[in-house]
Design a protein that fits this description.
This protein is of the alpha/beta class. It is built from 7 helices and 7 strands, in the order αααβαβαββαβαββ. Strand 4, helix 6 and strand 5 form a beta-alpha-beta unit.
Amino acid sequence: MQTSYCHTTNRRLFLVSIFLLASSFAFTQTCNNQGFRLNRLRAGSITKDTVKLWIENDLEFIKLKPHDTVADIGSFQGYFPATYSIFSDSVVFYLNDVNAEGFEYLDSIKIECERIKGVEVTNQFNVVIGTEYSTELPSNQFNKVVVRDAIHHFKYPDSILIDIKRIMKPNARLIVYEPLKNPEIDNKTLCKGSMTKEEFLELMSKSGFKLTEKRSAGNDRCWFVFKIKD
């Protein structure tokens, strides 16, 4: 009986491991499964503490304060600004992408975030659809601009980065979360457009940005904070 029990337990642990691995993979493939993040929030076991573990690095780097005006570039569904709103108040978010398809989920995501928060979300959300060359956001409006896992998707990154400078207030912070390619490792989970750290920093410098902070987020991802060069 003991051998049978151990065999069953090991099998269960193996299945759980496979499930967690599949869930992790699915989380990185939300473009192909647009309802994944919404369903993740709807899980009955999800609490504020759970969500905070997911986004604690985001919150640490973005440092949201009441009355911040934040541009979220490549927002897709507005999922991350919505989850940030569980832990912040009176922030104005502009959610920006090149198409509106993902924003069909925004209202449902906000409802789940309010349920998890336990009170009404006071942050504001404004959706602005841009182009491959321009964010179409108002000039000199934002004290924080967030580009999360998106620069390697830009068709014309030089144009968008120049446009991001246009929308930033003086002394504004550009906060970037970006996957980086290691040329010595064949990482098939990275998107085709992913850059090495040297290529990425060269692009940012050429576009007029000065690096002020960086930190590894694991899994080939890094957080960066930039300001406009003097």
